[in-house]
Amino acid sequence: MQRELRSVRPRHDDPELPDDITSQDLDRIARNELKTLSKDNAEAVGRHLAMAARVIDEDPELAHRHVLSAARRAGRIAVVRESLAITAYATGDFALALRELRTYRRISGSNDQLALMVDSERGVGRPDRALELGRSVERASLPASVQVALAIAMSGARLDLGETEAALSELEIPQLDPKTAFSYSAELFAAYAEVLGELGRDDEAELWNERAERADAAVSGATDFDETMEILEIDEEEVDEEEYDDTDTDTDTDTDDSTDDDDATDVSDEESANDADDSTDDDDATDVSDEESANDADDSTDEAEHDAQASPRA
Fold it and tell me: Cys-Cys link to 88, which of 96, 168, 231, 239 (CB 3.0-4.6 A)?
């Protein structure tokens, strides 16, 4: 009796892609990583990653499906595994996020997602492991933005353990400077305010919340990641009224006549300053296969697909 031949390859239904999405919607670094793939495969992977970036805030589940489609085609590309981790985290699948972040770090050699690894350890209920992981890397070796994200994650782990004072100390880093605002400052200030509130220091908490709002306003509209603004803190009484000082000075017959008019100045909470530069290994990663281009598709082998409920870079 003749047996029906069936493909051992599981069938995957990719989520639909709109016509206006292309791989060019990814940033240059992500596109460069896809150059090791065939042209058609790189375009398909890039489109799914770009679509995931577009919808992750509104529909993280859909974003995760798009990244899974990319991972089936390019599971050995670092940005793909990083994106899979991010969407898994967004959907609350912290175990998957942690596995994928470990794989990403092994492939890329980068610690840029260390804070997300720490937070994922918290998500699976291991704050002690989270703190151990966060201390495993020299802080000074990390970019300033990663140092801030790590401090916030470490502070959260301390709160999970009921160590509120230690949680505050985790946030007291050089970047906690109310006089300057970077892209990460508002989140850091708000986290500091939250812990102050937990300690019952409400007045200080309110002050840091105000600083967080000013920092967010200062950098809103900034296009460069390293954009920084100077924030000048002043007394409220100084902004309630304008002061006018008109001083007339008499001069001698041998000197030029001069009059000093001290016009009132508008005092703002923010002044622009010069741009300042800011200068993830475990082998238990889930297997995701690369699917070759259309001509070689029958010769390729799949690795197992992630079972996830699960922001890629765009």
Answer: 96
Please compute Rg for the chain using Cα positions: 27
CB-facing half-sphere around the CA of 24: CA atoms within 13 A: 2
Helix ranges (DSSP H) in the chain = 28-33, 39-55, 60-73, 78-90, 94-108, 114-123, 127-134, 144-160, 164-171, 185-198, 202-219, 236-240
- C-alpha dihedral sign at 223, 227, 232, 236: positive
Cα distance between residue 226 and residue 177, in whole Å: 15
pTM for the model stands at: 0.68
- State the architecture of 16-110 in CATH terms: Alpha Horseshoe (1.25)
What amino acid is encoded at 193 in this protein?
A: A
How does DSSP classify residue 230? E
pLDDT, tens digit, 9 for 90 and up, residues 135-153: 999 999 999 999 999 999 9
